[in-house]
What we know:
By secondary structure, the chain is mainly alpha-helical. It has helices spanning 2-27, 30-41, 46-52, 57-69, 92-131; strands at 44-45, 73-78, 81-86. The chain contains five helices and three strands; from the N terminus they run H-H-E-H-H-E-E-H. Helix 1 runs antiparallel to helix 4 and helix 3 (46-52) crosses helix 4 (57-69).
Amino acid sequence: MQIAYASFTVNQMVHYQARLDATFAALSDVTRRGVLEQLGGSDASITDLAQRFRMTLTGMKKHVSILEQAGLVTTEKVGRVRTCKLGLRRLEEEAAWIEQHRQLWNARFDALDKLVEQLKRKEKADAQRKSR
C-alpha cells in the first residue's frame, strides 16, 4: 500500500512541475503576455489578435495554442471564426511558487547582510587595535 501512495505523490509532483513548466513557458514570450492582457479586456478572434500584434494567422495560432495548452486561454470555433478568451485557470500555484522562492532569496540576502555587517565590525575593531 505504501508503494501506491509513494507513486501517487510522485505523480502529483510530476503533474505540478509539468503545469508550472507549461505556464512559465507560455508566459516567457512577450507576444503571449500581450495576448493575455488583450483578452483580459475582451474576447478576440485569432484574426483580430494577429492584426493587433502584426503577425501572420499561423504565427498567432501557434501562440494561442501554447497558451491554450497551459490552460490560460480557451478557444471556440463558430463557423469560420475562432474566438479566444481567458481560460478558467488561475495562477495561484505559480504565485505560490514565486512567493516561496522570493522568501527563500530574502532569507539568503538577510543572512548575507548580517555577514557583511559582522565583517565590517570586525574590520573596524581590527583597525582600532592596530592604531593603538
